[in-house]
């Protein structure tokens, strides 16, 4: 069967993967309301296309933290990719590099920062969880720096792991033939079986619940890399992130896996963008499955978007070729959306190109 859109990979992944693995990737927290809402909210944003504009040439290139990329579509950190495919993060890194975009490697990857760097050139960011042992954190950040990673994406919404009931039912744990490669030498690479979710127990034992804004400052004392704060969804925290020296914000609800009943990220985006006042770039993570979604995020002020689940599902289905196909389909759909909206470059995408169900009614122009 020919794949014609990103969402079709999920059903293939479900067929191919062990239930424990598929459920880990696919599920959200508790009632999974936010999981549905991350997708559904996009359908409450409609287009106001402009016509009769010469769209014979379309430029999708952009820069992120000074790095030029081919399109504003990047890869979010997703953990334990070798559960999806034997090549795991290696395949994802090669696909991202071939597409001319940025891959973010998870702290909990099944390939190390050095291994991913060995796949060849590419712009890569490193997602960081802050462990109770700060020496572990400092060591990891230094290794990412040495391996040529260009930024740290600090996850700030996980002092504790969200309640993911599928993982509890399945007694989720990392398969015994895999390790969290970045922690292998530190005796933190394995996950014990638990009476609920092995990952929840691992997080409770290792991740620092005391993490606060002062740690964002501390991080800047141990690395020169720019720090993106991942997991901001309010104006208040946006303003604090700016004061704390963040280089950018990733509006994220952790793929709806942490606190259920937070708004969809596409809904939270505008509040964050307005509070940021252009002082730092704001990116969207969560729910993007179509090129139209990318356009909507940019129209609401995002500088780019990150995709997560589409990467692991396509990786499970077709390995590196699957991830490449996801990136090329999103690219083509986004280019088509730009053309049909009358936009030739990213800077031409404006708030006036969309209307949302939370907008005030537009005044009717008098004839």
UniProtKB/TrEMBL annotation:
Catalytic activity: glycolate + O2 = glyoxylate + H2O2
Keywords: Flavoprotein, FMN, Glycolate pathway, Oxidoreductase, Peroxisome, Photorespiration
Annotated Pfam families: FMN_dh
Cofactor: FMN
Presence of the UniProt keyword Flavoprotein in the record: yes
Localization annotation: Peroxisome
Coiled coil stretches, renumbered: none
Gene Ontology cellular-component terms listed: peroxisome
Record-level GO BP terms: defense response to bacterium; hydrogen peroxide biosynthetic process; oxidative photosynthetic carbon pathway
Annotated EC: 1.1.3.15
Residues engaged in binding FMN: 77-79, 106, 127, 155, 230, 252, 285-289, 308-309
GO molecular function: (S)-2-hydroxy-acid oxidase activity; FMN binding
UniProt domain FMN hydroxy acid dehydrogenase: residue ranges: 1-359
Residues where glyoxylate binds: 24, 129, 164, 254, 257
Residues at the active site: 254
Associated pathway: Photosynthesis; photorespiration; glycine from 2-phosphoglycolate: step 2/3
Highest taxon in the source lineage: Eukaryota
PROSITE patterns linked to this entry: FMN_HYDROXY_ACID_DH_1, FMN_HYDROXY_ACID_DH_2
SUPFAM superfamilies attached to this UniProt entry: FMN-linked oxidoreductases
Stated family: Belongs to the FMN-dependent alpha-hydroxy acid dehydrogenase family.
Official protein name in the record: (S)-2-hydroxy-acid oxidase
